[in-house]
Amino acid sequence: MISRVPGRRLEPIIRAPDPADVRVRESGAAIEGDDVSPPPTTSLTVLAPSESPVDVLLRMSTFLQDHRRRHP
Question: Organism's domain of life (predicted)?
Fold first, then answer.
């Protein structure tokens, strides 16, 4: 839970990348420990009127199993 302080705005903390990392990444070389697999495709899934919550859970379960198989 985030508690609000009256009169103060909550700002996200964003860490700037290390310039050395940026130079290496721009050269196309992978840094040790980087995940070099292609980025996953993302899509917004909307519940179709004919789809039951059980269908959605089964689809999500199948997606997670496939994801775990590809990224052990």
Answer: Eukaryota
CB-CB neighbours of 44 under 10 Å: 4
Place of tokens 């290390």: 18
Q: What is the pLDDT along the chain (72 residues), one digit of tens a residue?
A: 455 555 555 555 556 555 555 444 444 555 555 555 655 565 555 666 677 778 878 888 888 898 888 887
Domain count, the chain: 1
Range of the domain at 54: 46-72
In a domain, 69, yes or no: yes
